[in-house]
Amino acid sequence: MSWNNASFQPRQENGAIEQLIKRLARLPGLGPRSARKAALALLQEPESRLRPLAQALEEAVRAVRACPQCGNLDTAVPCTICADPNRDRGVVCVVESVGDLWALERSGTYRGCYQVLGGVLSPLSGKGPEELHLSGLQARLEGGEVREVILALGATVDGATTRHWLQGRLAPYGVPVSRIGHGMPMGGTLDVLDDGTLAAALATRQTVEVQPGTNQPFEIKPPRPVPGGAGNPPT
Ligand SMILES: [Zn+2]
């Protein structure tokens, strides 16, 4: 039997301690064991750890919102990036998550705006186009102010699927589309790259071919397969 604190399992099923551990264990990077350690560290120092964390969480719940234009998380609406007059509104970088946006901001070289998709298309987990956040990008494209769309998605199968789908949807707007990729390891996501590599990936982005005429403009619906192309007989 171990007397290690981290393996201690509180008995009460719905008690405050058990609830705290359960909530912590659901966070990315924390399993039950790490959650117990974290909970204990918080509970043993209520004034210096637990209460400040509770206050920071309360404040985040109260003040942080998703930007209606780009999907960034911020206390300002629209977010500080969208509202910044020094950002180039003609360049929109499409990223999977706010974590990827933060990574690009840390690299310190990008001065355009963003669209945070809130995920990528994933046939295996059933995530379809209707679940991607695209309305801000659509409004910007329809407003005619966009000169370039940069697809900065991870080098994963789902990232590639999403990029391909977006290329098709962007084609009718006639806006140059580019993608980053240089230096990105297979299976990698943006936020694992160091700042220099990410800046280089952005600087060496490549224009991608889009094929006008074969795709529909943005509509937040799943694309329908068209076997045999246009002119299918009605069934
Ligand atoms: Zn924004």
From TrEMBL:
Stored SUPFAM superfamilies:
Recombination protein RecR
Task: Kindly give the CDD domains that the UniProt entry links to this protein.
Answer: TOPRIM_recR
Q: Which GO terms describe its molecular function?
A: DNA binding; zinc ion binding
**Which parts of the sequence are C4-type zinc fingers?**
67-82
Spell out the residue ranges making up region: Disordered.
209-235
Where does the Toprim domain start and stop, copy by copy? 90-185
Does the UniProt entry include the keyword tRNA-binding?
A: no
Q: Which InterPro entries match?
A: DNA_Rcmb_RecR, Rcmb_RecR, Rcmb_RecR_Znf, TOPRIM_dom, TOPRIM_RecR
User: Per UniProt, which keywords does this protein have?
Assistant: DNA damage, DNA recombination, DNA repair, Metal-binding, Zinc, Zinc-finger
Q: Biological process GO annotation list?
A: DNA recombination; DNA repair
Q: Name one Pfam family in it.
A: RecR_ZnF
Q: What does this protein do?
A: May play a role in DNA repair. It seems to be involved in an RecBC-independent recombinational process of DNA repair. It may act with RecF and RecO.
Similarity comment text for this entry: Belongs to the RecR family.
Name of the protein: Recombination protein RecR
Taxonomic source organism: Formicincola oecophyllae
> What gene is it encoded by?
recR
